[in-house]
Amino acid sequence: MRTKHLLIGIICLLTVTAAFAQQPRDRASIPDKYKWNLADLYASDDAWRAEKEKLEAGLPALAKYQGTLGNSPAAMLEAFDAIFTAQKELYKLYVYASMSADTDTRDSAKEGMRQQMTGLSTKYSATIAWMQPEVLALGKDKVDGMMKAEPKLDLYRLVLDDIVRRAAHTGTPGEEKILADAGLATAGAGSIRNVFANADFPYPTVKLADGNDVVIDAAAFTNHRASANRADREKVFSTFFGALGKYKGTYGAMLNAKVQNDVFYMRAQKYDSTLEQSLDSFNIPTAVYHALLDGVNANTATLQRYLALRKKMMGVDELHYYDLYAPLAGEVGTKYPIDAARKNITASLEPLGDDYVGVINESLDNRWIDLYPSAGKRSGAYSESAYDTHPYMLLNYNDNWEDMTTLTHELGHTMQSYYSNKAQPYVKANYPIFVAEVASTFNEALLVDYMLKTTKDKATRLAILGNYLEGLRLTVFRQTQFAEFELRIHEMAEKGQPLTGETLDATYLDIVRKYYGHDKGVCIVDDYVKSEWSYIPHFYYNYYVYQYATSFTASAALSEKVMASDKVATKKYRDFLAAGGSKYPIDLLKDAGVDMTSAEPLTLTMKKMNRVIDEMEKILAEKK
Questions:
Q1: Burial group, residue 354, by CB count within 10 angstroms (0-12, 13-18, 19+)
Q2: Are the C-beta atoms of residues 4 and 436 closer than 8 Å to each other?
Q3: What are φ and ψ of residue 320, in 5° steps?
């Protein structure tokens, strides 16, 4: 059940601007106002279970519509209404189970609920596997005629157009049912990786310079890799990646299983590549992906210019990969506890309207957010929503600048879900993955702009600008680096080449060293960095990461206009937030004011990056 929210919500773990915590606390000690109120979805686990059983018992009834779609426009409408109503309820059940499990990944009963929903989702897909082949058998002319005869079928126009568009990749009803039934088996790699990485992996302990012994799990790694103490950073990097490297065989087998699943679906659906198969889901040309890789590779000189600036500002003789997360110009302020973050975020978002800020306040007041880290809680951050309830957000908040930017990032997702669900019927509310990171990075841009406008102190401005550059590095360059790795390993699998821990290590290290100018001495990428790929959960979500980069460039272009008080641009952006999935993603962004098939968004982003570097160099020169 690969809907937008399943991917956006559960995998928005933010290697972009991650907010991870200090050592997790006991969940019972966290005030309820900082924890989700999942009762807004279901009153209890028992209530959830009753609704799940009711839905499961009703699924066989969907089979009665098989063979009826061509009987009349009314028959098609009845069938589609029933199919998508069941899907809506199915997803609501999934959201509750998944979020319940994420509060404590050690709880096998909660994980069992999530697994039950994976099974039920597969059963649903198998039950309606006849739908697409049956629509195709009717033919485009008859489908168009039926929509003309029954205006209510216009609700499903994009669904029907999409089925017809992908006719060459749709099998017979029997073949489609086999593919749907295979979903439960092919979902295993990601589930295994999630449990292994979050609950079972034997994370190492290191003694830091302050004398404290710290377990370097994913959350602690993200926290301590930004330490001001260089020796601690090197120790944390080498220890964490070294521990991952000891299990490269296991991680390699898991990632290989995921990639082979993608190859299976590519061949079964008659695509020429896994990239084409993935991007075609939302009608995105593969040229967009390749253009991003080519464009970013052509601009690595700008990345390396920033790295040279970082080296100079840090005063090190040799810049290493473990230096990249250290504060570039000191901390931005001291601490940003939730009340201070709320004040800054709401003020920064005022250009989007009073109602927009009002919903932000509602989310903070009414337990839409699970804010603080706790033992066993899933790391990272995400926004998730079912159609007929408000969105939810998971964070691991630690009162610093990155946490504040992560919060506004997730609020961007939340607001897009909120307005799309409010403005669109369920079938059109699910906005495409390709546009999902636009709203989140747009919010970040407004926050940075607000903080710069309200900050005169040069040292603080330097720190904010430095954080902006680091965010750009992480979002555009790092995510494209991931995208290049993902494409390369899929291409290897398509050619029948092995994907072992060793080959994945070598492939990853080669790409990272190219981006960071290792051979030119710009930034030394130590050998143990080869294991970093095993730490990235995004590789278990088919060709997702490139969209962080494309979305960032899109939001950079759009936010500049809104920050310039362009009322027309602001209205277009607000309309975009409410548009959901009413059009294909390329068209949604064109309506918002940016053409992602052109080089313009990336070009404008690189120009802005160079302007920020110019300003920082100017401030540094004035300080001498």
A1: exposed
A2: yes
A3: -115, 160
- Residue 347 CA to residue 343 CA, distance in Å, equals 6
**Which residues are within 8 A (CB) of 1 and not within 5 positions of it... i.e. 6 or more apart?**
87, 90, 91, 94, 121, 124, 125, 183
Could you tell me which residues come within 8 angstroms of residue 494 by beta carbon, excluding any fewer than 6 positions away? 263, 266, 273, 274
Q: Give the integer Cα–Cα distance in Å for 421 and 363.
A: 15
Known catalytic residues? 410
- In 454-478, which ranges are continuous DSSP H helix? 458-472
Question: Which residue, among 82, 607, 612, has the nearest Cα to 309 in the 3D structure?
Answer: 612
Q: Which residues pair with 374 in a beta bridge?
A: 25
Q: Residue 146 is encoded by which pair of tokens?
A: 């039926």
- Give the global pTM: 0.80
Q: What are phi and psi of 86, to 5 degrees?
A: -65, -40
Mean pLDDT of the residues in the chain: 91
Q: Is 394 helix (H, G, I), strand (E, B) or coil?
A: strand
DSSP code of residue 207:
E
Return the pLDDT at 560. 87
Q: Residue type for 264, please?
A: F
Residue whose C-alpha is closest to residue 192's, from 240, 253, 247? 253
Residue whose C-alpha is closest to residue 416's, from 449, 380, 450, 443: 443
What burial letters (b/e) apply to 257-295, b meaning 16+ CB within 10 Å? bbbebbbebbebbebebbbbbbbbebbbebebbebbbeb
Question: How large is the C-alpha radius of gyration of the chain?
Answer: 24
- pLDDT above 80 for 422: yes
Band (25; pLDDT cuts 50, 70, 90):
confident
Report the distance separating Cα 287 and Cα 271, nearest Å: 15
The SS3 call for residue 289 is: helix
Packing angle, helices 173-181 and 108-127, rounded to 10: 180
Look at residue 6 in the predicted model and tell me its pLDDT.
40
User: How far is it, in rounded angstroms, from Cα 404 to Cα 411?
Assistant: 11
The token pair at 570 is 């602001």
